[in-house]
Amino acid sequence: MTIKGSAYVVGAFEHPTRLAPDKSVAQLHAECALGALADAGLALSDVDGYFCAGDAPGAAPMWMADYLNLKLSWLDGTEAGGCSYLAHIEHAAAAIAAGKCSVALITLAGKPRSSGQATGTAPRALGPDRPEVPWESSFRWTIAGIYGMMAQRHMHEYGTTLEQLAWIKVAASRHAQHNPNALLRKPVSVEDVMNSPVISDPIRRLDCCVITDGGGALVLAKPEIARRIDRPRVKIIGCGETIATNRGGYIDLTRTGAERSGAAAFAEAGVRPADIDYASVYDNFTIMVLMQLEDLGFCAKGEGGRFVADGNLVSGTGSLPWNTDGGGLCNNHPMNRGGITKAVEAIRQLRGEAHPAVQVKDCRLALASGPGLVVGSGHNHATVIFERE
Amino acid sequence: MASSDTRQGTGPAADPAGAADAAGAWQQDPFAAAYPESSEFWAAAAQGRLLLPTCTDCGKAHWYPRVVCPLCGSADLAWSEASGRGTLYAFSPARRADPPYILAYVTLDEGPTLMTNIVDARFEDLRIGQAVSVRFQPAAEGRMMPFFALA
Hints:
The structure holds two protein chains of two kinds. Chain A is α/β, with parallel strands linked by helices. Chain A has one domain: Thiolase/Chalcone synthase (Peroxisomal Thiolase, Chain A, domain 1, 3-Layer(aba) Sandwich), CATH 3.40.47. Chain A is built from twelve helices and eleven strands. In chain A, a hairpin with a 2-residue loop joins β10 (365-375) and β11. In chain A, α5 (162-176) crosses α9 and α8 crosses α9 (286-296). Chain A starts with 7 loop residues before the first strand and ends with a strand. Chain B is α+β, with helices and mostly antiparallel strands. Chain B has a single domain (12-150), classed as CATH 2.40.50.840. Chain B has three helices and seven strands; from the N terminus they run αααβββββββ. In chain B, the strands form two sheets. A five-stranded antiparallel beta sheet of chain B has the order 5-4-3-6-7. In chain B, strands 1-2 form a two-stranded antiparallel ribbon. In chain B, β4 and β5 (113-118) form a beta hairpin. Chain B starts with 15 loop residues before the first helix and ends with a strand. Chain A binds chain B through residues 121, 127-129, 131-142, 144-146, 148-150, 152-153, 156, 198, 200-203, 245-251, 253, 376-377, and chain B through 30-35, 38, 60-66, 69-71, 89-97, 101, 103-105, 111-117, 123, 128, 137, 139-140, 143, 145.
């Protein structure tokens, strides 16, 4: 059985706010839901499947479902960190394929910026309920520290350079200058990235994504409903989801879950990396983009540094147009979770609704891929491949 | 296979009364209490010994400890005393923390890689692959944790 072609993305919405101290998380979820439904020309009363993750009030679907008074036949609260919403696309497509729901709503929202959260640099105060925590909590790991070690290992094993990593930020900034909602709109140079303050060696400030309030939402529908909507139709043709565990302590910080989620998505879609016209690849840190591009198969393992250098990810001039909204590095990383904005920009590209300066000509196949959480220095991972009909 | 580090005697454990406190402190630690199946580890750690969960079926050690071998699925596990020696796999300093510290992964000679901090070292002096050895230090909650120092 496959979910290929069983569901379409009919609505996509990225909340324009980047700072929302005067709104509740529930309000932001609701505004995102209404935004995506308006984009689809549908109403809350059409929704019969609802998907959200740990950022939702109550960290489960019930509370927003009650707030919105949804009439549901399917609920899914899969928590996989930042990639949850890409996993939800797969889950929603599967539920639609099985006839369990017809119109699926996925929402994300949160306010880490207005609450002053030091997302990457503050150790998490975790209780003992997660089984790895007693063995790690005293070591005060931070997200920037973990990703610093990933970058160090990749540089050690493959000769990747800081200049090559900087090119990823440069590409994101060149795209973000065209996005009026982007938090950081100023184009930066390789030198700017190299000269920015060290956060957690070898990661520098401009290797890190932004921290923003906001959110986003997606609406998926079965083909019969998608055909009634007067918009370019975007079909889900391949999905993959996995977890890269800590392998019982036999970790490899240079490999990501994209190896498996990407392979599964490409196999289901029946396409190859070279067929992809546009790629949204999660950019919490520059190093993670580089490793995922390798693991997705856009270049060989260890070749990521050479692949991303010299503007190869810049739309219009590079071989792989990537994160044309400015991504998490420059545009938006709502609630520290980049999964939904990755899908939203892929939908814009496929509909021809990206900014003209970054729009990929005749964009037919797009990919959205990303990790979630830190799990014993592994992570969840999900990949979705979309096709414009 | 002695694993206790003789240089450890600069901390609270140098004081006999303090040593007695440290030896039992793990029993009041909520992170140790939540996992009674790992009590033997914390009791040994309080004595400066590093135990590793090791599979009787596949013969491999794993990290972090759990009741099933994550490598082969066997539930037939035993604690084995590790050498306390390993090599530096990766490290990154938290420069702005007060006091600063060095987050690291160390690959033990027995195979698994574990998260730790490198103590008594300057970031500039560290290199991937350097030999390190365990140096137990107390967690804020009371249990003794396997920190590492250059060997």
